[in-house]
Write a structure and sequence with these properties.
By secondary structure, the chain is of the alpha+beta class. The protein contains 6 helices and 14 strands. Strands 9, 10, 11, 12, 13 and 14 form a 6-stranded mixed sheet that branches. The relative contact order is 0.14.
Length: 300
Amino acid sequence: MEEHNVFAGAFVDRKTLKRKDNDWLEKALLQENTRFIPIWDECFLVNETLTKLIFLKSNDFNYSQTKKNNIFLGYFRGHPIFAIIMNENIKTPFSKIGKFKNLRYLGNVIATDEANLAAYICGLVKWHDSQIFCSKCGSLTKPEKGGNSRRCKNSVCDNTIFPRVDPAIIVLVTNGEKCLLGRQAGWPKERYSTIAGFVEPGESLEDAVCREVFEETNIVVCKIEYCSSQPWPFPSSLMLGFTAEVDSTVDQNICLNDEELEHAAWFSRKELLSDFPKLPNKMSIARRLIDTWITLSNSR
């Protein structure tokens, strides 16, 4: 897989050493070439055609409209860039210059580098919202290092908290000319996808693939191969894509062991190209795993 998955790609120069320099950060907020990305109710400001993020200058907004916890992201397209979190009680800010849309909508629409930037912001904003209180002592926390960490306000505790991601495997299992897909009860009608699940403590990625596939479908796999990864900030996952094959030395029958899935079945390429099943959104790594398998199989 040579191309980037949606949301992936190192398009932001994160300038990690600048995060510790408070004087530089204060000056950067006022520089003419600095740009700001406003976030309102977990949505991003885009142009009227909903195809481009809108980048603001410091004189385009009033800090009284924000929550005053700017997040320094690094450099993007040659500009220092910050995320600004707008007060959610403000009714539709910047309505004269654009519209606010969520990242699930924008992922397939905006440019690849903008999607990567937006995913970075989305993950950090959700992390900040979940870390208002210290997990060790329960005291309030405050942002530090340009919004890239938080510290407990209780000087006795003084706990430092860093952003985290939750690794999850996602795997396309094949058995000759068919692949294994499943669906959860709450999904849209006829929607099927690849098998996925979070990596547990003390577990390798390959072990997680074997465990998740067996837990959800009773299928034993082998020949596990890593394909690519995708940041998935809904809220904080890192999807690690794999392929695997059925272990032909074991008698195999699908059984929904943990009842996480409503149904699972084997599908041929012809079925996947028809109206049933409905496949995952094209911006997901699940869809890319499926499409890649179809393409490679058809080229043989």
